[in-house]
User: Which sequence fits this backbone?
């Protein structure tokens, strides 16, 4: 089974978010980048399936050279090889076009992604790729198993419930917890990752459909109003009469 | 040229998040000097569809094909694309739900449109630009995004738009049929399982959420969270470790790697307020924190707080909530 896992490179979950240049640009200063946490579920599940059924796991990132440490990390976790499309990920549509071009050429059985990237919170790329490829996209899935060599069974979250879906290969799915327990690289993985192939390719001439003009931050809270624990019931009155939310 | 809104049903009624999308869509239509049409699929009562007039919808196109009772992405896309074509719609509005965002993404490809998900405000239209504001960096910031193609697709974040209600206005309901083929159902779900929701409050749509963390000490104390939620008409939620240890089901976990909620009121009980937890709740309008540690980071993000033992404080809140006239 040939599996393609798409990973995005995002600010660590604890990062402070700031903007520069008249709030037109994200301030990368002091920001630590990690593999998008949801994508770690996709990657780990892909490696588990490979271990059980044989095959290969390729990781793919659309990004500039500074994403390579995290691509190497994915290799250290257990992917076999990697592709980086050398381009700034302008928007979801652009990224989906790049992934589709690679996926069509590679003939993968399964294309796994994360539920959403925690920087741009799009929840878009996977469904776009499914549509561009003309294959099913099951997102967000929290369970993925093979029924037989050509069919997978997934459980997908919908608001207020879940759906059980069986699809023929090839398909696209996006992962969320509790699909698996994401793995961290071990020493041996880190050593072998250095020599695993990482291919850099040029983008296809894709267009973007949107343009980020500026950023803003939510208003700061004015501070907490504390209520004495012995008088806890007072809180309920404040919520009704002052905050007007009850 | 009407603005097209996709509305989702639940138990025959329109979901609250879709009433928000309809209100959003009709305001956009008004600003553009046109009307708003809704498209509904599957099992929704016709009276509920007509009532969308209250949200400013003039017409509803309804495909009642039995096979569409459950969500089938390819088939839904076909129906909505047909409605968009029939109405010559250039602006399509969805709720930013798992279904709405999925269908919106696929339509963006099919119609060659610009897509913005997680949208929090009405668009600004000036000088030929069409700019929306959307939540980015897990609630830590907003981005203003210009939608540059002819067709614009917007998925509206839950609880970020007021529901308009012009009592008495009704929409006309027309049948729509998209000539679906067998192949449109290739990836249809085998089975759809809905959770039991106490009092029918879905967590992602709830206006009030009562949430418990490790400070609740164990599942045997969760009846306190549930009772308070019941008194307030709230949904219940929890922090990640709580669902990881199995005190609560995974679908209740909120935060960076869980569900994002933006209720009017979020009550956090025995939750420390780690940045990954805040990422899922920081767009709540009012935040209440109950924690025995006055240094808990959550107090910095709170509007109201009580420093105290949850097991003593929550029963007092339940009492006070019972005393409220509803
Ligand atoms: C990549 C990543 C993603 C993550 N995603 C999420 C996520 O989506 N959601 C999430 O919640 N977490 C997430 N986490 C975990 C997060 O960092 C915290 O560990 C977690 O939120 C802590 O949960 P907690 O507050 O319930 O427990 P704790 O941190 O153990 O806090 C318990 C709190 O309860 C208080 N307390 C104890 N006893 C009482 C009492 N009797 N009465 C009142 N208060 C009491 C304590 O003072 C303390 O503040 C993530 C972490 C990482 C690294
Ligand atoms: N630049 C990128 N390169 C590779 N994969 C990506 C990229 N951006 C997003 N993805 C994948 O698409 C998923 C959904 O992203 P998004 O639609 O941006 O929320 C992510 O979890 C990744 O798996």
Assistant:
């Amino acid at each position: 089974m040939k599996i393609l896992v798409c990973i995005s490179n995002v600010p660590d979950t604890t990062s402070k978010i700031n903007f520069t240049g008249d709030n037109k640009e994200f301030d990368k200063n002091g920001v630590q980048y990690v593999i998008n946490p949801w994508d770690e579920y996709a990657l780990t599940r892909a490696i588990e399936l490979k271990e059980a059924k044989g095959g290969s796991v390729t990781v793919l990132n659309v990004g500039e050279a500074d994403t390579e440490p995290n691509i190497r990390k994915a290799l250290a976790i257990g992917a076999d090889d990697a592709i980086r499309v050398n381009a700034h990920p302008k928007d979801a549509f652009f990224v989906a076009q790049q992934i589709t071009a690679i996926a069509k050429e590679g003939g993968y059985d399964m294309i796994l992604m994360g539920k959403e990237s925690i920087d741009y919170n799009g929840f878009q790329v996977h469904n776009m790729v499914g549509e561009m490829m003309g294959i099913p996209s099951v997102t967000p899935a929290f369970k993925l198993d093979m029924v037989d060599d050509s069919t997978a069974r997934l459980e997908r979250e919908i608001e207020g419930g879940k759906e059980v879906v069986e699809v023929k290969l090839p398909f696209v799915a996006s992962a969320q917890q509790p699909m698996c327990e994401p793995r961290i690289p071990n020493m041996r993985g880190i050593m072998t990752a250095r020599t695993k192939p990482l291919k850099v390719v040029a983008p296809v001439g894709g267009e973007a459909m949107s343009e980020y003009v500026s950023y803003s931050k939510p208003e700061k809270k004015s501070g907490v109003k504390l209520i004495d624990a012995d008088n806890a019931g007072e809180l309920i009155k404040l919520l009704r009469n002052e905050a007007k939310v009850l | 040229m009407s603005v097209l809104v996709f509305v989702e049903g639940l138990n025959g009624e329109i979901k609250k998040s879709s009433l928000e999308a309809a209100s959003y869509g009709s305001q956009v239509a008004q600003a553009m000097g046109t009307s708003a049409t809704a498209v509904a699929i599957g099992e929704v009562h016709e009276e509920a569809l007509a009532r969308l007039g209250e949200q400013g919808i003039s017409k509803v196109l309804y495909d009642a094909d039995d096979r569409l009772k459950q969500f089938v992405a390819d088939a839904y896309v076909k129906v909505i694309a047909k409605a968009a074509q029939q109405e010559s719609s250039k602006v399509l509005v969805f709720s930013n739900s798992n279904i709405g965002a999925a269908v919106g993404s696929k339509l963006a490809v099919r119609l060659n449109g610009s897509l913005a998900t997680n949208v929090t405000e009405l668009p600004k239209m000036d000088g030929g630009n069409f700019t929306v504001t959307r939540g980015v960096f897990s609630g830590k910031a907003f981005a203003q995004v210009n939608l540059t193609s002819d067709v614009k697709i917007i998925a509206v974040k839950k609880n970020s738009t007021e529901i308009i209600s012009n009592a008495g206005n009704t929409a006309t309901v027309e049948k729509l049929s998209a000539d679906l083929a067998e192949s449109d159902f290739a990836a249809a779900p085998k089975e759809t399982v809905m959770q039991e929701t106490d009092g029918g409050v879905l967590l992602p749509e709830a206006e009030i959420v009562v949430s418990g963390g490790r400070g609740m000490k164990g599942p045997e104390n969760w009846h306190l969270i549930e009772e308070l939620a019941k008194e307030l008409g709230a949904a219940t939620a929890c922090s990640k470790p709580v669902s990881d240890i199995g005190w609560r089901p995974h679908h209740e976990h909120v935060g960076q790697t869980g569900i994002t909620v933006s209720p009017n009121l979020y009550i956090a009980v025995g939750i420390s307020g780690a940045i990954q937890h805040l990422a899922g709740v920081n767009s709540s309008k009012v935040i209440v924190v109950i924690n025995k540690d006055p240094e808990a980071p959550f107090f910095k993000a709170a509007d109201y707080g009580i420093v105290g033992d949850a097991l003593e404080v929550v029963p007092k809140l339940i009492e006070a909530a019972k005393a409220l006239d509803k």
